[in-house]
Structure formats: structure tokens, C-alpha cells
């Protein structure tokens, strides 16, 4: 067996998963599954910016491969395809040439939406979350326009090969400047609701949650790496937003910054969250009618959050319960539709991420209010931790149950052979 070819296959599979936004454990698990299909001992170490895989040959010699990971995005279609083909190879155990061709053919099937569809995603995500955070329909329309402007600016910065930090600064500046301009010219009344809705396309809410998940799950180095990336992204949003507010104050003599309130109707919140999640499905490259299932999970999660808040249980307990319900939905759908749970978790968790808090953290820093800034930061950390624990509780429970079922199956097979 050509072990170097097998190692290259594992590195390429892990690379595809990591750049598509797969979790650390999924990257390592998928590579290990591929190696186990050919009875090869394997050790895998994945962090957000690199991947190391070591295998041992028949003579006990260790062969190690390293792959540097560059730009990270979220590509649900790629994660689903890589996960599916990996399990198929593990199940069928084809020869290496056939397996390599299977992987290559599956990689070629990965597609991305054209620019117009992506801009539609920016519009739906921004407008939907604007309503979610208290905007009326006209304000949501202008929030969607700001989201489209942000999408165009990100595309332009990508064309210039700018790094993520400067892309997010530009995106935050465009959103804050356009929404403030709309407010000052009288087109909208609540600039904050429109800004927060549009900024959700930049907020690293899932990054915060994944950071806490990695740390709690034991992937400390990966978690710390993600934490640094999240802090840099949050700082970039603050710099971009703050710069826009300063420019608006210099040009217009004022800039509106006030706390927004969410709509009273839970139905309106759920509908707007669903629409926004559909927009994110387009941005995250989810395909066909599966988008509806990916977006639908946010509804029971948000209703659970509202119920806990109404019962006086507090934001942290509400976030924990909502995340647990979303994670349960994702695990059920993963087994019903035979796709990774992360496909449903990625978008369904969006209504629960602390996007507004990140925006107001930047505002407090701009207004030179260190006490409010520190309080917001501590709230975000606690809230993200509650989300992560809720997700991990359910996902770990399902994994333990699956392991128990597997050993029970092996025991039954052993008894049958006797």
C-alpha cells in the first residue's frame, strides 16, 4: 500500500473540511476514519491554521504530513460532501486508486453560489435580523441595502487580496456609515436596529461558541487559537463601526447611538429569524430544500429562550436551554437526513448568538465607558459559555449513546458467532 498517497488523501480531506468551517473534532475524526478503513494507525492534530497527520508503516516508521490552513469560511455543502464520502470509503473500503478518485470526484461537485445569490443572502440576513432586533419593515429594507453594500465591499476587498481583519473593518464601516446616513436623512428612525441586523453578517457569534466548545471539549490549543481570531474579528467590527460613527459626527454633526428593543411578538421574531437564517444558508452555501431544515431549528431554540426568560430564569439559563434544544434538533435531523449535525447547528444557532452585545461593546468603548464595556465583555463570555455547554451536553450525550449502541452491536455479533 502506498502510505504516502494515503497520507496525502487524509491531509487533503482534512484541509477541505477545515477551510469549510468544520469543527476540530470532525476534522480529526474524519481523517482517522479514512485511515482506519485501511487498518493504518494514525494520529491527527488540528488547529485552525494548521493540520498535522502522522501514520505508522509496517516497519514502525512514522510518516508525518503538515498542511497549512489559510482562509476559513463556512461551506455547508462542502462539509456535507466530505463527511459523506469519508463514511462511504470507510464502509466500502475500496482500493487507494478508487478511493482517491472518489474523493476527487466529490470535491469537483462542490459548488458556490454566484455573486447575485450571495448578495440576496446578505440582504435577507440583514433585513431579517433587523426586524428581529426591533426594526420596522422600511428600516429592515434599508438594513438589507446596507447588508448588500457590505457584501459588495467584502467582495472588493477579497479582489484586492486584503486579509480578514481589514475586510471586517471595511464591512463594519460601510454598514455603520450607511445606516447612520439613512437615519440622519430621515429614511429610518432606529439606526441601531438596522446596524445590528446588518452587522450580524460580520459578527463572530458562532466563532465565540465554537471557541468555548473546543475549550470545554478539551481542544484547548484550538480553542485559544479561535479565541484570538474571535477577539481580532470583534476588534475589527469595533474599529470599523467606531470609525464610521466618528466620520458621521464630523460630517453630519451627530450620530445616533441608543439601545434598541426587540419586537413584542414572538411570532414576528421567529419569522424574521427564519428569513435571516435562510439568508445565511445562502451565504454558507447550503443547497436545495435542505436550507429550510437548516433554518427551521432556530425557531424552537428561540421559543425556548423566550420561555425561560418569561419564567425569570435569566439570560444564561435561557441561552443554555435554547442551545440544547437547537443541538437536539440538529442531532435528530442529522440522523433523519444523513447529513452532519453541524449543517443544521450552524444556522439554527444564529438567533441565539450575542450579536447585539458585540455591537454595544464597541459603542461603549467609543463612548469611553470602561465599566459598561467590561460588563458587556463578561456578559458575552458567560453567554457564549452557556451556549457551548448546551450544545455540548446534547451532542456528547448523542455520541455516548451511539458508542453504546455500537458496542452492543459488537456484543450481539460475537454471541451470534459463538
Can you offer a commentary on this structure?
Helices cover 73% and strands 5% of the residues. The chain is mainly alpha-helical and 418 residues long. The protein has a 3-stranded antiparallel sheet. The model has no long low-confidence stretch (mean pLDDT 83).
Topology record:
Blueprint: H1 3-19, H2 24-36, E1 42-47, E2 50-56, E3 62-68, H3 76-92, H4 96-108, H5 115-132, H6 137-159, H7 164-184, H8 191-199, H9 205-217, H10 220-252, H11 266-283, H12 290-296, H13 298-310, H14 315-337, H15 341-348, H16 355-366, H17 370-417
Antiparallel strand pairs: 1-2, 2-3
Helix pairs in contact: 1-2, 2-3, 3-4, 5-6, 5-8, 5-11, 6-7, 6-8, 7-8, 7-10, 9-10, 9-17, 10-16, 11-12, 11-13, 12-15, 13-14, 14-15, 14-17, 16-17
Briefly say what this structure is.
This protein is mainly alpha-helical and 418 residues long. The chain is built from 17 helices and 3 strands. It folds into 2 domains: 3-108, no CATH class; 115-401, no CATH class.
The count of DSSP E runs of length 2 or more, i.e. the number of strands, is: 3
Derived structural class? mainly alpha
Q: Name the average pLDDT.
A: 83
Distance between the termini: 34 Å
Low-confidence stretches: none
Main sheet strand line-up: 1-2-3
